[in-house]
Amino acid sequence: MRPPRPQSPRFRMGRTVRLRRPAWLLVVPLLLLAACTAGPDEDPAPPQPSTGQAPGERWQPRPGTTWQWQLTGRLDLSVDAAVYDVDGFTTTKEEVARLKQAGRKVICYLSTGAWEDFRPDAGDFPQEVLGKGNGWEGERWLDIRRTDTLEPLMARRFDMCRDKGFDAVEPDNMDGYRNRSGFPLTAEDQLRYNRLIAALAHDRGLAVGLKNDLDQIPQLLGDFDFAVNEQCAEYDECDRLTPFVKAGKAVFHAEYELPPSRFCARSRELDLSSLQKRYDLDAWRRTCD
Prior knowledge:
Layout: H1 23-37, E1 67-70, E2 83-87, H2 93-101, E3 105-111, E4 114-116, E5 130-133, E6 139-142, H3 147-164, E7 168-172, H4 187-203, E8 207-211, H5 217-220, E9 226-230, H6 242-246, E10 251-255, H7 264-270, E11 273-276, E12 286-287
Parallel strand pairs: 1-2, 2-3, 3-7, 7-8, 8-9, 9-10, 10-11
Antiparallel strand pairs: 4-6, 5-6, 11-12
């Protein structure tokens, strides 16, 4: 059994002192109805103004897309990358707008499977859904079976991402069933919850990435638009992400312990978007270029 490792490296530093039904089923009937009843100048289902997307559209990152992953420190807007993955709470609407004006796509990082005591909505989570710690100070696994409680909380977070102008969401801690969460979570519980998270993103015109959770890729490939992975090279798992690449979906991959010389050749073969990052996920990065 592999020794425990961090699920999402985030340290308490940076710009905040607080310190980490598919949508098309709904769209098609509306479009058919509109075709019969709407005049040429009518728009029966206008998009949310903040997304800039028509109904049913969302971003689809392709394999090999360059990216930057920064969750701590002063946000460096000058990195030469097509995609920025940044903290959804601490990144401002103005920063998102500046990135998009520069031609970047922007991913909203959120923890959807674990509670964080430093988030502004931490008090909205009742004690009964908080489980064991996940290895990071101030964080505890969530009882993902309690969708009656968690769905509206996550929906508000996704509304925040949409309203700030993000293009996509990176939901973290999406494999609680493989960890000692304090709850008897099953693989089916995880599949149900992960699909709910994907639907919440898609309903808001946002793309969504599957974070780690390699064992459930075959079941979840159709629900997610890209993947985000940590340390697949270190643990000899990168081949398991091939279904995403074959489906034309990007795999955003980061290593912490290995230098690029140890993983870039294989990453190029697999068409992964690979970086070396430090555990605090500040602006520093090394690429495979």
